[in-house]
Amino acid sequence: MSGNVAAIRDLSIRFDTQQGPVYPLRNVDVDVPRGQIVGIVGESGSGKSTLALALMRLLPGNAVVTGGEVELLGKDLLKLPAEEMRGLRGTRLAMIFQDPMTSLNPVRSIGQQMLDIQYRSPASRAEKIAKAADALKRVGIPDAREQLKRYPAEFSGGMRQRICIAMSLLQKPELLIADEITTALDVTLEAQVLHLLRELRAELKGSILFISHNLGAVAEICDRVVVLYAGEVVEQGPVFEIFDRPQHPYTRALVECDPARIETTTRELPVIPGDVPNLRSIPRSCIFAARCAEVMEVCRRDRPPPTVIGKGHSARCHLLEGVES
Amino acid sequence: MSLLSVRNLNVRYAIAGPVKAMLTGLSSRFIDAVLDVSFDVAQGTTLAIVGESGSGKSTLARAIVGLTPIASGEVRFAGKNPFADGAAGRAYHREVAMMFQDPVSSLSPRRTVQSLISEPFIVHTMREKDLASEARRLLALVGLPKDFASRYPHQLSGGQARRVGVARAIALNPKLIIADEPTAGLDVSVQGEILNLLTRLQGEFGLTYVIITHNLAVVRHVSDETAIMYMGRFVEKGRTAEVFPDPAHPYTQGLIAAQPHPDPARRRTGVVLTGEVASLRNRPPGCEFHPRCPSAQDLCRTIAPRIVTEFSGRTYLCHYPVNRPAQPARP
Predict the structure, then answer these.
(1) Which residue in the set A186, A213, A216 is minimally distant from B52, CB to CB?
(2) pTM for the whole structure
(3) DSSP letters of B201-257?
(4) Shortest CB distance from A254 goes to which of B188, B218, B274?
(5) Superfamily of domain A4-92+171-320
């Protein structure tokens, strides 16, 4: 598995809550190949963020990994001592969070925060400041040296998200996890941030796990796409396959629902009828059976295994059985 | 005939008291959140107001319903000034409803859905109504089951909370609904449900909508007219079906191009609109969009453009519009 920065196999997670157990992720398989941008798409509650937090080993205390393996940067993530895990975070592994307003400390200047996160480096203070200024310059912030003295509140949302990106890139991480980083931004800033990620990826030489519910953003920068629905990977494959030849009925419905995809103007927008299933009691059927337009007898009885459709493209759907290549 | 008519509306916020302004030497202690906005909305149609954060679109919505004082200009509803006297104002608040941005935080967490959606009747002293049956009627209209009446906001999903917001808005049979970001924060599959619901109610009751949003993909499908706002001004306005294929203002063109396409074959290579909205405290001279404009020329840096009205009714504020002859500046 040397070609993968991260390889997740059959991962299942349970949250123990006062109202009983919840199963946010079940039998998840995801590979993040070196140098690629892998998109994770799904609606709210599909388990996107739980997956990101599992990779960072930042899951809340009530989370239990009930099965599976995760190989991250050549190490067995689930068995890694806490000490060694801390060594990975911020150096070889970095994460950018959704809300640039709350992920920076409001009472410390940007420069102080960018020095703080270099605490492991043996470099001198002046060198660290130079490195921080350089990182800000790379994400397109002018007057970088001057800006280091300023506080988060003095920057706009788009600038703050750039600062977060600059901080995550200080150590050239091999895996960067970006959790809904453009959701809080306007379209014009989103376009700028996506363009920035695309530019940085060449010099980064690492991989990016790009989590988003925005299909447009995913289509724009990802190489591979993983579609999550209610805690299960229903389909994954190369980006062109997913958008041009989606195989799972959920992926198809999701792509068709996007108003940006509909060329002719319509007042009657397509929807996916029904609700996301309750993750407290998982049915033995296909997880999408209750909302699927093409549901069959077998779908309500058995959970479909992943079917390989093409190179690196697979989907969990009974309709695809027998077309196995 | 237009139901809502807004003329030269200005809304300003004080950013410092008079003493502070004098001591710090501020040139003006106000910022203009909405500047010289004029438009009409015809009965039964939908106007979409689009802009980036800080463009003044929410302030404009609040000013129209009377939640933010107007500095100058005029709002007329069905030909009358609703803020002229108390009686007209009360009638106005029955006929104009607002749907607020965040569906969950705009609902009181301590009240049931029934109490939330029957509140408008109590506010407008219509206690003689049977509130429970009114609540059931409204829930049915927005497509929620009756037993939702006894639920609390935290038991609702984002889409359901949004439906409760719609129910509250239509409770008093208003003529005009102002919806501030009706689909923000919703998943695409649910977004369609809410927009279809609004469209259905429009057909059933002849409602008029003003929709405030930053989502252009949605605007294209649901609105008759679109206005683009930048730094408090309408920089372009016209029929949606004409503005999208043929924008006149470079900002409109940039906004449309910034929209990511859910199709990997249509990836963009560059960025059309760079930079961010300038500070409202010191507006750029000339055309306020010139620091970000790809086609800005010397004229744009010194002289502010005037409103150009085309034969089709399209208006825009630009010296060098897209695919159109340059507009010479008149002294």
Answers:
(1) A186
(2) 0.89
(3) HHHHH--EEEEEES-HHHHHHH-SEEEEEETTEEEEEEEHHHHTTS--SHHHHHHHH
(4) B188
(5) P-loop containing nucleotide triphosphate hydrolases (3.40.50.300)
